[in-house]
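help with these tokens:
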Amino acid sequence: MSSLKHKVIAVTGAASGIGRAIARECAARGARLAIADVQQQPLKELAKELEAQGTAVTVTILDVSNSDSVDDWINGTVEYYGHLDGAANIAGIEGDSKVFCTIAELGNPAWDKVMGVNLNGVFYCLRAQLRVMKKGGSIVNAASIAGLRGRAGISAYSVSKHGVIGLTRCAAAEAGSQGVRVNAVAP
């Protein structure tokens, strides 16, 4: 197990699921964390758990679809810790019942909500992180198997995750020469 001692890692979607697991794993490896999510109570519970184990952690209630809020979070993280070494952009939604339908039935509000969180949110986080990350940094974005192939009935989700893969490839090409790695996972 590699050490993340003294590394500062920012994690979105940290209140549940994959984001929560990533935050716990980074803490177990010695990282200092900036965790964020829209789910206030589970995020604060995670922070208490990690702090009880000796992890330095900051908590931000964050809607990743708000560019200014994302910029404030990342800038605040750097102001608090002095730098940012890594990030896991995990926040995402599948949508509600209004999203699980054919393209012909899909309404603008459902489409906009999924794109706002899953694609725009990753873009806002990635942009803010790349502005402050130095050589040796690493960013991981959450895509999905649905981002590798289309599937009937989940077009908004699938398209948003296809976008994350494309955005990640562009960021990797741009940031690689500066010594920052950008990758995506497709669970």
The chain has five helices and six strands. The beta strands are 8-12, 32-37, 57-61, 86-89, 138-142, 181-185.
